[in-house]
Amino acid sequence: MMRASVIFLFYFAIFVHCRNPVYLENNGYGTVLVAIHESIEEDPLLIERIKEIFTSASSHLHVATKYYTYYDSITILIPKTWSDDLKQAAATTERFDLANFIVDQPSSIHGNNPYTKQFLKCGEPGLYVHLTERWIKDEEYSWAFWGDPGKVIVHEWAHLRWGVYDEYPTQDNEHFYYDENGHVQPTRCSEAVTGQSFDIYSRGKECNTNPSDGVMPSSGCRFIPDLEDNVATGSYMYTSAIESMVTFCHNDAEDSKSRHNRLARNKHNKQCCYQSVWEVMLQHTDFEEGDKPAVDINVMPSFLVVQETELRIVLVLDISGSMDRNDRFELMIQASTKYIGYTVPRGTWIGIVEFDNTASILSYLIQIDDMETRQELIDLLPDGTGSGTSIGSGLEAGIEVLEEGWETPAGGILFLITDGEENTPPFIDDVIDELVEKEIVVDTLALSDEADPGLAELSAETGGTAYWYSESDDSTALHDAFTDTITSRTSSSTDTPVQLTSYKTSIDAGDILSEYIYIDPTIGRHTVFFIFWDFSGNIPVDVVIKAPDGTIIVDGDSGEYYRDDSTHTIIITINGVAQSGQWTYDITNTDTDDQTVEVSIESKSVDSSSYPLRLQSTVGSELITESPPLVVIYAEVLRGYEQVLGANVIATIERPSPFQSIDLTLLDNGAGSDITKDDGVYSAYFIEFVDANCEQACRYGIQVNSDNTDGEAYTKTTSSTGAMPTDYGAIPVEGDPNLIGDFGRVTSGGSFQVDDSVHIPGIGDDPYPPSRISDLESPTSDYDEQTITLHWTAVGDDLDQGTAHYYDLRYSTSFSDILDNFENAIQITNKDLISGDVLSPSPSGSSENVTVWLATSGTGTTYYFGVRAVDEANNKGDVSTIAQNTIVPIPSSGLAGWEIFLICLACITVIAVAVCAILYMYWQHKENTKVGVADKA
């Protein structure tokens, strides 16, 4: 029975996107997790400084939120390599990869600048806040560049918790804007913020000296706020370095010192449709009606220092009679053998449970130390099937395994693999509350469409991940799921393997499959080829691998080649560090029948001190409950904290039988579902849902592949996100893109499930409007021609898919009118355009450019523009970001009056000198002539 409650949905969103769930009770945030990475050297001072900073942050947060919130309890997670005497308790649910705040090495992009990983829409939470050891420990340094560290935490918490964005300019064209009088103003919030404008390219020369002339200052002009003696009290999202800054911008007309500035060109206005930060915050459950501010309370947080422990995982394996179908049991044992033997990191605790109508514990938790321990656990895997399906029994046995010999089962993981609908009590619903109460995570892998529909909810409510194996001829989701349960939880470790390829294909009898992979320079340690041949075939395939230097690895000629006939698996391990370059491999089907072969290749970072190139993926929601259905698929290509741009990223979505899989290109272009262009986060909406006759539940599986076949992938060198420093010298300077070269990566994106109540659009239905255009800009204007140029990225007919029907482009001389009364603004048609076409949009993701002629004389009036895409069903997208420009004569020189006077004076002097010289020469010539005549005489 499905239970899609509001409480469940909120918990799921918090857990997935904020990772570690944070609870607000009696105005205090509890269980905030600050985790220190294993690469940070042991230092008790770091722990003490974290306590000091968050104690200060709690006081600032209390005031900034008008006494609604503060930090009640903070958990500090230290690495397992640190001394035991620094901890107060062992960690349970706390893990570095789940933390709200992480303390790690500085990145080449951000340096020591604190920042929040944030890629969801306005109002949705961020992923984590990244702090560095130097920023925390070096007080003189952090105060000099960012001001009070406690205030910086408040700034980042607003990103993380409430999904607001920065109110300072993050792009070169955002530093100044036009107000409704045509005056040039510096971007800030509130407008009460005082300061001066200086040119960073001219040794600090003052710029923007005449805002009323309507001329934008030079590209190097920057507004520098007064850090002391400022009158403004808001906003934290502009900068926390100003001493007087104590709150967020709001819409209170009576308080000009922190009133929201809708005209400012910043990311918050663009992403949050020009709402104030406080407006967005009030829509969060933290500020629900009924909660009251608490003024006279103790806001000093309590701290608990815990030490990270190894993973504890229990395999809960279905051995019911239906597992005999389609080789499900054999495939489960095959995947479990690879998982225990190779995927699970050393030090992990593994237990095994089997269940049919009852459950049996095959192994309590055993820590993996070596290959002997791994083989011991493999030998304990189930050896046959039974009858009946009691998933609840398997879960209860899994709880018992986690409790045996441990103080608490909290933080333990049950990995449930099942193909059936439960028919014997206890059921999932009988156990789920206990799992939640004991803080046990449950990953679920549904084998086939027959698996119980309650699995997705079980994973969602316990903070796990739901996977689905469709049993299609080309699905690799079974092995991908086993791998992802580890890699998604330990991605911060350099010892976690990355998948280079994962695919399944059919090889005709007697044929050879020839393929290749690239071992790029970031990987090569412990490279393993896994080849699984068909259980219906009696004769194993032959595999030959060729290294870049021509070395051959074949069966019988190398100790790295291992074949397990019981699980139909060939495992080839490359000793040491594999050579960089192209590796080729041939797979020969020597059988007389066609065989389906699955290939998976993994490798680790080139050494334990460096990060490998890694692909990660997640889905916006694992349970679709609203009509019309849609879901966003996200992916990142990373090397540590460096984002990779320009990569090819393709998500393959398996749909319910008999419908074919869909390939969906994920883009990083700042349009549609993608919030920020060129931030290394690739995404797209998936809307190709089908009205299938699903046996138990309609599930969709995701596999994501990334490569560099176009040769354009590179690592980003600078970032525009993070707390605004008082001196940009604190952030690494922009350098040339670092080209990556050939690589290949694959990962599981999990699965999502459509609730029975959801209406699937039929043929001819068009319920999806175009996406909002979020990057409308006006880069130039021409006084002589009386024109203004506009450009934006095209969105689709259905969200970010396809091509829109036409654009509704309008303008006004009032910002409020274009934003709040778009229908009443003046519409621009093709007859008003010098170039471009609003009636023929380009495909989604393309660049659109138009030049608008305005019937006006250049008076310095500010023009505000908005656009929305419209599809053939007359579905209208939301109004875009607002572009602005003015038409004024541009001076031929940006020189000051006194400079022009001196130049003119110099020119007059030069001319006078030249005239005098000519007159003198003429006089001299005449004198010489007279002398010559006298001599002749």
UniProtKB/TrEMBL annotation:
UniProt superkingdom: Eukaryota
Sequence intervals crossing the membrane: 900-923
InterPro entries assigned: CLCA_N, CLCR, Ig-like_fold, VWF_A, vWFA_dom_sf
Annotated SMART domains: VWA
CDD domains to which the protein is assigned, alphabetical = vWFA
User: Which key words tag this protein in UniProt?
Assistant: Membrane, Signal, Transmembrane, Transmembrane helix
Q: Where in the sequence is the signal peptide annotated?
A: 1-18
Q: Locate the VWFA domain: which residues? A: 312-486
Q: Does the keyword Hydrolase apply?
A: no
Protein name in UniProt: Epithelial chloride channel protein-like
User: What's the source species for this entry?
Assistant: Saccoglossus kowalevskii (Acorn worm)
Q: Which gene carries the instructions for this protein?
A: LOC100367042
